[in-house]
Amino acid sequence: MAIRFARSKSITHYVNKNLGFHGSCSLDSKKCSFMSSTIPPAMKRKTSLSDPDNLVASAARRFQSVKAGGRADYQLAPDNDREIQGLDFPGGRVAFTPKLRFLPESPEERVPCYRVLDDDGEPISSHGFEEVSEEVAVKMYSKMVTLQVMDTVFYEAQRQGRISFYVTSTGEEAINIASAAALHDDDIVLPQYREPGVLLWRGFTLQEFANQNFGNKADYGKGRQMPIHYGSRNHNYFTVSSPIATQIPQAAGVAYSLKMDKNNACVVTYFGDGGTSEGDFHAGLNFAAVMEAPVVFICRNNGWAISTPIEDQFRSDGVVVKGQAYGIRSTRVDGNDVLAVYNTIRVAREMAVTEHRPILVEALAYRVGHHSTSDDSTKYRPVDEIEHWKMVRNPVTRFRKWVERNGWWSETKEFELRKNVRNQLVQAIQVAEKTEKPPITDLFTDVYESPSSNLTEQEASLRETIKRHSQDYPSDVPI
Amino acid sequence: MSGIVRNKISAFSVQSLQRVGPYALSLRGYSSGAKEMTVRDALNSALDEEMSADPKVFLMGEEVGEYQGAYKVSKGLLEKYGPDRVIDTPVTEAGFAGIGVGAAFYGLKPIVEFMTFNFSMQAIDHIINSAAKSNYMSAGQISVPIVFRGPNGAAAGVAAQHSQCYAAWYGSCPGLKVLAPYLADDARGLLKAVIRDPDPVVFLENELLYSESFPVSSEVLDSSFCLRIGKAKIEKEGTDVTITAYSKMVGHALKAAETLSKEGINAEVINLHSIRPLDRQTINASVRKTNRLVTVEEGFPQHGVGAEICASIVEQSFNYLDAPAERIAGADVPMPYAANLERMALPQVEDIVRATKRACYRSEPRAATA
C-alpha cells in the first residue's frame, strides 16, 4: 500500500526543518547570508518554542533541498577565496573528499574518564575542583554508608526468608548518592532499579523502604509490587518498573512535558549497560535530541548485565560514544568518585535545563554484588575480580578518606553511624513484618481511575465468600 | 424501510435524538434534514474540539502533521495548533508510545496514533506494561491519561501484516479501556469521551469506515457531545435473536438483519461500542429477551471477543438460551492478499444471515459457499 512510501517524505521534511540550524542553504545562497557555516550550530539553534515563525520558515524550506539535488554543488566560501566543493544535503552541507575513508570501528584512544579523587581519596589535579561544603560532603558520606548497611540488612532478611527478593547497589553508592545530591528536589527521576540511593537522599525513610519490601498496608505501593520497586510521588521518584529501558523514552516524554510547562527542572533517568541494548534506548535518546528535551541520561556502566559482560553487550567504546550518534552531548565519569559524579551531574543538569537539551553521562563502576538475590555471580565471574573492586576500588572507603582528611569524619562517627543505621533497620524490619497486609479493597482499586462495574461485583462476591468461610481466611490480612 | 426514523436516547443527554436508521445511508439522495458526516470528519472534529478545549491534549504519530495524517484524520490540525501539539514522530512505535506514556505520566494528555494497530505490536510493551498497569502498580500515584488510536482490522488487499484485529488482545488486559466506534456519531462521541478519560484507552478505528458517511444530528455536532464509555448501543431493536458486533461488522449485521426481516426473523443488533469494559448487562438483557445469540467479529475466532460474550451469556443467562450461541469470526488464517481469498477470510453478510437462521433452527448449511 501507499502507506510505506509516504513515510520517507515526512522524514525528509523533518530533517529539512533543521536545515537552518546547520548553516546550510537553500538554492539561493543570498537568502542565508545571515546563517554562516562558520558559526557553531549550537549557538544558532532556535527552538520552536522561542520562535513561532519557525513554522512558516520551515514550511518554506521544506522542499528546497529536494530540488537542490540536480545542480552543481559549488558554493563560495564566506571570504570568497576559493570554492568549497560540497553537497547541499538535508541536514547540512557535506564536504566532498577524493579519499575513501571509513570511520574506525573503535577510536585509537578510548574516551577518557573524568575523575577528581584518586583511589586513595587524594585530589589528583592541581586544577581546582568545585568544592563541596562540609555539610554536603558529610551528608553524602552518611547516606552512602546508610545505603551500604541497608543493602546488607535487607539482603540478609531475604536470605532468612523474611522478604522474597532484594537487589543491592553495592559498588554503586557513589553514583546513587552523588548524582542525587547534584540534582534539585523538583527534578523528576525515572529509575531503573539499582538507584534506591536517590530516594534515600531525598528523604525516604528506612521504614518506608521496609514497608515496600514487605508489601504491607503502609507500603505506598499498596502491596502491588515486588520488593525494591519503590515509588514516591512526593519525592518525584517514579515507581520502579521491571522491563528494562522502558523508562528511557518515558523520560523523554516527561521532559518534553516539563519543557511545555516551562518548568525550570529536568528529568533524570538511570539505566545500566545492558539497558543500552534495548530498542527503547535508541528511540528514547533519538527522540530526546529531536524534541530538545531537558533530560539527563545516566548510564551506570557496571560491567555486567546479570551474567553478560559488556564485551558481549556491545562492541563500541562503552556507552559515551553512542550519544554523539544521536546528536547528544556526552561525557564519561569515574562512577566510584563521589566528587567527580557530583560535579558532572551538576553541570549536566545545568546544561539540560538552560539549553533545553539532553545530556548523556556514562558512569563507570562495578557491580560488586550479585544481580539480585536470585543470582550467584561467582558462577560466571572470578571471585578475585569481585574482591578487587570491593576492596581496592570501593567508592565508600575512597570518599571516606577524603572526608576524614578534611577533618569532617572520624572512626567514632563511623562506628556510631553504622551501629545506629543497623539498629534502625532491624527495628524497621520488625515493625514492617508485623504490620498488617493491605486490605482486600486494594486488590480492586487503581485498575482504573474509578472501579469498573465488574470489579465492584467481584469485590462484593469475594467479601461474601470470605464471610461464609471465615475460618479458611488468613487472620493477618484485613478485610 | 428507508423512511424508518428511530428514537434514540443518548446515554448522557436526556433529550431524545431523531435519527434515520443507518441502513438508509445507501440512499445518498435521501433528504431527512439531518446533516451527514464521514467518520473521518467526525474523528477530525472530535480531535480539533478536544485540543481546543484542553491545552494539555496533543497528538503524535507518524505522518500526523505535515502529511495531514496517513488517512487524513488529523487534517488541518498542524496548521491550527502548531508543531508543539501535533508531532510528526520518527519511525519508532516503541519510541513514541513510550514517550507518549512519559508525557502522560507528567500530566499531559497525549493521543498516540498508530498508522495501523498492526504496528502497535512493536509498542505493545509500552501499551500494556507502561500504560495499562501503571496506575495499579504505582498504587494510584502514576496515572496515564493516554489514548492510543488508529485503524484496526482488515482494509482491502493489504494482507496479513496489515489486517489483524486487536480487539481481543487489548480487550483482555485490565487497566486498559478498549473502544470501537462504527457510526460517525460513535466516532465523535466516543473519541471525545476517551480523550477526557483519565485511564489509558485503546481506540480501534477502521480504515474502510473513514470515508463512510452517516447522518448526524445537531446535538452530535455540538462541541459538548460525548458518549459514555462502557455502554453498548442497540442499533436495531428486535425480538427473535440478538446479534452483537463492533466496528465495520455492525454495518454487516444491520444488512443481515434487513435480509432476515424479509424472512420473518426480527433480529436485534447490538453495536458493542466498548470491548472493555464489555457491556454485559445490555447483552445479557437482550439475550434474555430474544433467547438466541449470534456474535460477529472480524478478528480471529480463538479467544476472540465473541468467545467472551458467549461465556458471559452461559454464565449469566444460560437458562434463557433456546439454541446454542453462534460465533462468526474471521477465518483462522493469516489474512491472504488475493481479493477472492480475502473475501472468504472475512465474515460476509451471508455468513451472518446463515448463522442467524441456524440459531433460529432454520435448516442452513454450515459451510460458506462463497
Describe what you observe in this structure.
Chain A: Belongs to the BCKDHA family. The complex is a heterodimer of chains A (479) and B (370). By secondary structure, chain A is an alpha/beta fold. Chain A folds into three domains: 3-95, no CATH class; 134-433, Thiamin diphosphate (ThDP)-binding fold, Pyr/PP domains (Rossmann fold, 3-Layer(aba) Sandwich), CATH 3.40.50.970; 446-472. Chain A is built from 18 helices and ten strands. Chain A has helices spanning 3-16, 41-44, 54-61, 64-68, 134-159, 173-182, 196-201, 206-214, 247-260, 279-291, 310-313, 320-325, 338-355, 383-391, 395-405, 411-434, 441-444, 453-468; strands at residues 74-76, 83-89, 92-95, 188-190, 267-272, 295-301, 304-305, 308-309, 329-334, 359-364. In chain A, the strands form three sheets. A five-stranded parallel beta sheet of chain A has the order 4-5-6-10-9, with helices on both faces. In chain A, strand 1 and strand 2 form a beta hairpin. The longest helix of chain A has 26 residues, at 134-159. Chain B has 370 residues and is an alpha/beta fold. Chain B folds into two domains: 2-23 and 36-221, Thiamin diphosphate (ThDP)-binding fold, Pyr/PP domains (Rossmann fold, 3-Layer(aba) Sandwich); 233-359, Rossmann fold (3-Layer(aba) Sandwich). Chain B has helices at residues 39-53, 77-81, 93-106, 124-132, 134-137, 167-171, 184-196, 218-221, 248-262, 280-290, 305-317, 339-345, 349-359, and strands spanning 5-9, 16-20, 35-38, 57-61, 86-88, 109-113, 147-151, 177-179, 201-205, 213-216, 233-236, 241-245, 267-271, 274-276, 293-296, 326-328. In chain B, strand 15, helix 11 (305-317) and strand 16 (326-328) form a beta-alpha-beta unit. In chain B, helix 1 runs parallel beside helix 7, helix 3 runs parallel beside helix 4 (124-132) and helix 10 (280-290) crosses helix 11. The longest helix of chain B has 15 residues, at 39-53. Chain B is globular. The model of chain B is unreliable at 1-31 (pLDDT under 50). At the A-B interface, helix 1, helix 9 and helix 10 of A face helix 3, helix 4 and helix 5 of B.
